[in-house]
Amino acid sequence: MGLMLHLGYGQEEEVVLWTPTGKLEWSDFKGKPSNISNAAAITASGITYSFSAKGTKDRMELDFKVDTHFYPDKSWYKTKLANPIILSHEQLHFDISEVYARNFRQILAKTKFTNNAKSEVKEIYRNILRELNDYQNQYDSETNFSRDTVQQLIWNKKIKKALNN
By the 8 A CB rule, do 104 and 128 touch? Predict the structure, then answer.
């Protein structure tokens, strides 16, 4: 029903890695529901990266790793409102994060980096997160947080197609 993007480098907290076959269960949502939010559930997911670079100052080769994570302790649901439709809506938030992680990987693979690679990667990352955030908001608004069943089905198809490409 909602989304929280999480930027984390020090990963001491529990994370669930996105996989093609893995699906979220309500038991993965371990956070305490907010009394002030009217959302039925919140999915906290995000993209993390690490890389190493080698080469000359004009041409750096990057070895990078990009992951999509779900954060159980920052994700929650209200038991009374929980149903399979809302759970699949939340799953799609996680899947959308993976779509953008793949975009990020593609851009990193194509970009020519210099010895300023660290800030160049950070800039690309910031742009990806901004686009991801806008897209997640568009998803919630077009599906009316899963209430618009027709739009929800359209989004399900659209994201499934993006993940299969």
Answer: yes
Residue 101's domain comprises: 3-164
Nearest-5° angle of CA 46, CA 54, CA 112? 70
| Residue 4 predicted with pLDDT over 90 | no
Place of tokens 């938030």: 93
Number of compact structural domains in the chain: 1
pLDDT for 10 equals: 52
Mean pLDDT of 97-124: 96
Mean pLDDT, range 59-75, rounded to an integer: 95
Name which of 30, 27, 25 is nearest 13 in CA terms. Answer: 30
Got the DSSP string for 93-141? HHHHHHHHHHHHHHHHHH--B-TTHHHHHHHHHHHHHHHHHHHHHHHHH
Cα 113 to its chain centre, rounded Å, is 25
Mean pLDDT of 124-149: 97
Contacts with 105 (C-beta within 8 Å, 6 or more apart), sequence order: 64, 66
C-beta separation of 94 from 126 below 8 A: no
Judge contact between 4 and 44, C-beta under 8 A.
yes
DSSP 91: H
pLDDT band at 3 (very low <50, low <70, confident <90, very high): very low
